[in-house]
């Protein structure tokens, strides 16, 4: 079993990585908590529930009260109404301040159940049990949130989990599209902090069909080590944590313009990273070998150009109303070189110019 | 201008106390922030808005964007739907991470606007501008929350304000009932931590008609000093902060059984304190002079007995489902003697017995 230590200002906890970990979550949880657990509330979604809910519930001691809640699968569940429903269920089940919430699923479940944990009776403990590759990123670092019709993740908190239990076997029930989506965040960690990881990935991964579980365990460990490193330095995104936004400023705009679900998060981040690399080359007059990465991305099935039916001027507008924006300016993460991220305010006309260049030609 | 320093683990800030302070809030805020303010969002209610909103808005520099939102007055506004509405307004106004929310009003406004600040983009700054005596307690310490139909303050966070601006002149627009409600929390602080305050109050305050503003400034300063002392020791209620719950276990049950609004919070707390004093005398076989306090309470217009139409068995049930309860047990704050609070698990039959004794006889 691999372990990555997450050492933030407000809490220190571990990510446990191993195939078939879901069968021992109850025992592991018991071994890590310092305060007794009065009851457990497993929140999962309609896709994950039939696959893994019984395994997780079965991993707990029979005498501990266990309640479960299944939310509809998909981003639409990160809503005020599902949030309120899960709160109601938690109260009806009689959860108290010693209860623990288990978030079993992808990023949507983790974000929603984490926000419930952050705000139920002003905060109770929770653990993340990610079942997607993409969630490796969101399950660590304590960012929890729901969406507002006017913007993604606009309502949320920082609330660190007690632990993250990563059963890599569960990833093998994911469709290829989901592997691709999650892998983009792994690549991102390479770009901003770990060249060695980036080179290793290019050597080991040229398709998403049957990556050996050994490789998956390794890449998760390394990718999470980057994340751990960054949130240890900056838990609440006042400095270096912003670097994790590499590729995301344009990605959020693309997702929002296309409508969530039309493109996966990672697919949008891939386009955003190529954009950010190109902008970095222009800005700092350096050669980051964008073409090489573009080819690798394409080999892995990513699109690297902005879909032709999107309007650059609309994307620009969305980028200006990003959560990280201040008073309409656009601040983006660029690379001076590999591993050297920097947060920079970019003039709108430079943004727009490059959007036009990267637009797919029909 | 009086100042009380609140020094918690997560933040250090001041309570400023003075008559007519509302006219200088903008200037004061500017002097205390360490990060620039991009815009201001004043949240207030329909009773306070016509009285003081213009004064507060006028206290800010003209070039700073100021937005306002008026919610309906009353406890019903601490709901999911008002929370969502205020979030929507905040997004529509384009608040960003450098914006500051001003909570102008009583405890309802403070709790709601504070919870919005705690969760807007994962947390932005806010200041409390209490306009009631009761809010002197809730405005300090960072507890923010909304209600759920299944329980009061069940959804919330800990989020400390940047400052508390207490304009004591605004208290003079309060009806006597509201003075009485707030004063109960002042008395509570005396009981659990400051005998001297308690004696001084008995000497100085025998009615709520025209207490001189000098006395009000003094009693706020002393009462807040107790609160400051406690939250400095324990920000998130893992130990001594629970003492602030003195009188509240029964009070919450009474409020909930009567329906919120039928009795003020402080009126319920007064009954709850007499109950807790009596239970303390029984439990520790000490003489706390309950009769003396009962007489003073009655002189001030408090009821000290449980309204006769309430059912002790129902109250007991509510006390067992309190947020502080764990797995159905009742934990109450008692006094070994004045200033010596202790949190104790009490057997349900002892609770019930004393409820019967303190029930008003028709």
From TrEMBL, chains A, B:
The catalytic activity, as recorded, is: 7-phospho-2-dehydro-3-deoxy-D-arabino-heptonate = 3-dehydroquinate + phosphate
Q: Which cofactor does it need?
A: Zn(2+); NAD(+); Co(2+)
Q: Which GO terms describe its molecular function?
A: 3-dehydroquinate synthase activity; metal ion binding; nucleotide binding
Ranges for the 3-dehydroquinate synthase N-terminal domain? 70-180
**Is this entry keyworded Nucleotide-binding?**
yes
Residues engaged in binding Zn(2+): 185, 248, 265
* Family designation: Belongs to the sugar phosphate cyclases superfamily. Dehydroquinate synthase family.
- Per its record, how is this protein called by name? 3-dehydroquinate synthase
Q: What organism does this protein naturally occur in?
A: Halalkalibacter wakoensis JCM 9140
């Amino acid at each position: 079993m691999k372990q990555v230590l997450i050492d933030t200002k407000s809490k220190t906890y571990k990510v446990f990585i191993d195939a078939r970990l879901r069968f021992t979550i109850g025992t592991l949880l018991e071994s890590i908590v310092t305060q007794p657990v009065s009851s457990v509330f497993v929140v999962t979604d309609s896709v994950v529930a039939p696959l893994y809910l019984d395994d997780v519930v079965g991993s707990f001691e029979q005498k501990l009260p266990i309640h479960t809640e299944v939310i509809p699968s998909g981003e639409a569940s990160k809503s005020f109404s599902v949030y309120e429903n899960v709160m109601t269920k938690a109260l009806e089940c009689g959860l108290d301040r010693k209860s623990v919430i288990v978030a079993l699923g992808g990023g949507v479940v983790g974000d929603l159940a984490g926000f419930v944990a952050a705000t139920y009776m002003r905060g109770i403990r929770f653990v993340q049990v990610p079942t997607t590759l993409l969630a490796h990123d969101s399950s660590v670092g304590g960012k929890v949130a729901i969406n507002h019709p006017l913007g993604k993740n606009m309502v949320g908190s920082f609330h660190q989990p007690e632990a993250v239990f990563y059963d890599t076997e569960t990833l093998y029930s994911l469709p290829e599209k989901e592997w691709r989506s999650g892998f983009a965040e792994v690549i991102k960690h390479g770009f901003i902090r770990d060249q060695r990881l980036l080179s290793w990935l290019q050597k080991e991964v040229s398709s998403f069909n049957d990556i050996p579980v050994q490789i998956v365990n390794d890449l998760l460990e390394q990718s999470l080590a980057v994340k751990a490193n960054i949130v240890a330095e900056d838990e609440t995104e006042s400095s270096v944590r912003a670097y994790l936004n590499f590729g995301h400023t344009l990605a959020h705009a693309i997702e929002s313009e296309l409508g969530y679900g039309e493109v996966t998060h990672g697919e949008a981040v891939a386009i955003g990273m190529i954009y950010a690399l190109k902008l970095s080359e222009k800005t700092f007059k350096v050669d980051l070998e964008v073409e090489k990465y573009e080819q690798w991305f394409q080999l892995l099935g990513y699109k690297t150009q902005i879909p032709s039916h999107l309007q650059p001027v609309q994307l620009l507008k969305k980028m200006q109303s990003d959560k990280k924006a201040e008073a309409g300016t656009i601040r983006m993460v660029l690379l001076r070189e590999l591993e050297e991220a920097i947060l920079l305010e970019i003039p709108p006309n430079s943004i727009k110019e490059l959007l036009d260049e990267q637009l797919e030609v029909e």
